[in-house]
Every structure is written in C-alpha cells, then in structure tokens.
Write a structure and sequence with these properties.
The protein is flat. The longest helix is centred in the middle third of the chain and has 24 residues. The protein folds into two domains: about 40 residues; about 40 residues. Helices cover about 40% and strands about 0% of the residues. By secondary structure, it is mainly α.
Length: about 120
C-alpha cells in the first residue's frame, strides 16, 4: 500500500481538523464522548413535561430504551440475514483471472528507472 501524506500543511482545512481521529486512542475518546452525550440526553428526559398520545411514552427513558432495543434487534436481524444470503467469495466471478500475473511479453513495457 502507498504511504499517505499526513503533512498537515498539505491537507485541506477539514482534513487538518479531523487529523486527531487517526491517532491511537482516539476511538476510546469518541466512544466515551458518545456515552456522555447519551447519559446527558437520558438525564434531560426528567426536565420537561411530556404531552404524548400513549401512556407508555410517559415512562422516563422510554425513547432511550426503545431505541436501544430496536437497534439491538436490527443488529441481530442483520446477523441472521447474513447467514441466509451469504455467498462464497468467488460467487459472481468463479472463473475470474484478475489475480493472475499480467503477461510481460509483447506488451512493450518501458522501464524508466534507468534515467
């Protein structure tokens, strides 16, 4: 693989702002930041009066619990669906020759390293 240029002076402004994401340990920082946001939003559920259509919506933290259960269910459904629709790696191209070496004879390839 080619080495990527990570010199901050050559990157665009957005790239410079997001360069910290690539550093080791930043995944844990992002995870705990998201956990903190979820806790704050869950705590804010006690600060206002709800005007809902159904009684179950009056339960504190209902939407957080509902979202967690729905997303967890979605993950389990996706795992089960993967078992059903998974195909072998060469399913669409069983006789593919993409991984074979390209023949060098007759191609007139020039070597520019001797310049």
């Amino acid at each position: 693989m080619a080495e990527h240029d990570t010199d901050p002076t050559t990157l665009p402004r957005l790239g410079r702002l997001l360069l910290w994401v690539d550093k080791p340990g930043s995944d844990k920082k992002i995870f705990w930041f998201l956990v903190a946001i979820c806790v704050v939003v869950f705590a804010l559920d006690w600060t206002y009066e709800k005007h809902s259509y159904f009684e179950v919506e009056h339960v504190k933290g209902f939407y957080a619990l509902y979202g967690f259960v729905a997303f967890t269910g979605l993950i389990f459904v996706a795992k089960a669906l993967r078992v059903l629709i998974k195909r072998p790696e060469d399913y669409y191209a069983p006789k593919s020759i993409d991984t074979e070496d390209y023949p060098k004879e007759g191609t007139d390839i020039k070597d520019y390293t001797d310049v």
